[in-house]
Recover the amino acids of this structure.
């Protein structure tokens, strides 16, 4: 533990508002792509529930996410939207302190984060509701803001996420979905932030990529303004649930 993680008001913000539409657009529904019953259930689930409620073994992704992050805090903020009643009903069964925030329109990650402003006192962990991990983070002692990243030989993982460049642990550049990753560092769906980030969300324009305010653009603006964003190295296994076969990969990760 470091001074950042010891913040007595530390919150964990989990984004659960998405429809999973990007998942469908990235994977064509053809019989040759349907490799197992899990794949069929994956496509069926996209129509019935938000992705954070997809089950890995007998527990929703959201349950695995909470189990991991509650070692840092028992205070969670869930941003809900698509089929929000299902998410809320599940959250009510969890042994945690929680706040529910609604995102009426799917305007992206940065917009969802901005809606939590009134519930954040100082430091907060930001977690995407379809990202799981098993392992440990190395927190710099003097950190105010940090970005989770890990080393991977899978270039495609970086291309579908974001790239991270740094010098001596201080981040220089972040690029959303880079065509040519500059190194083997993959940015994770985990961010370790301070409430100052809300000021930058307000003044960051939408990107040409999706016409949304990208969280990577927000953080890059902070870097440009002279804020220190630390690299928070992750050692372990990580997965952003995107494709049908990812459910089986998630089972392997979470059964270790």
């Amino acid at each position: 533990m470091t001074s950042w993680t010891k913040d007595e008001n530390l919150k964990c913000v989990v984004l659960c508002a998405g429809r999973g539409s990007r998942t469908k657009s990235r994977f064509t529904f053809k019989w040759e792509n349907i490799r197992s019953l899990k794949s069929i259930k994956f496509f069926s689930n996209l129509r019935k529930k938000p992705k954070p409620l997809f089950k890995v073994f007998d527990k929703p992704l959201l349950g695995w996410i909470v189990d991991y992050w509650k070692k840092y805090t028992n205070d969670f903020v869930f941003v809900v939207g698509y089929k929000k009643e299902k998410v809320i009903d599940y959250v009510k069964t969890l042994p945690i302190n929680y706040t529910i925030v609604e995102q009426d329109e799917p305007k992206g990650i940065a917009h969802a984060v901005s809606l939590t402003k009134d519930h954040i006192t100082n430091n907060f962990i930001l977690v995407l509701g379809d990202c799981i991990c098993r392992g440990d983070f190395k927190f710099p002692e003097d950190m105010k803001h940090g970005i989770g990243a890990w080393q991977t030989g899978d270039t495609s993982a970086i291309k579908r996420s974001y790239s991270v460049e740094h010098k001596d642990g201080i981040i220089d550049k972040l690029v959303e979905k880079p065509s040519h990753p500059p190194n083997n560092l993959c940015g994770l769906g985990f961010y370790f932030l301070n409430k100052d980030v809300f000021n930058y969300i307000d003044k960051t324009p939408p990107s040409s990529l999706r016409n949304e305010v990208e969280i990577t653009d927000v953080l890059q603006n902070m870097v440009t303004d002279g804020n220190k964003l630390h690299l928070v190295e992750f050692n372990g296994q990580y997965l952003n649930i995107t494709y049908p076969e990812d459910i089986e990969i998630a089972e392997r990760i979470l059964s270790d």
Remarks:
- DSSP finds nine helices and twelve strands in the chain.
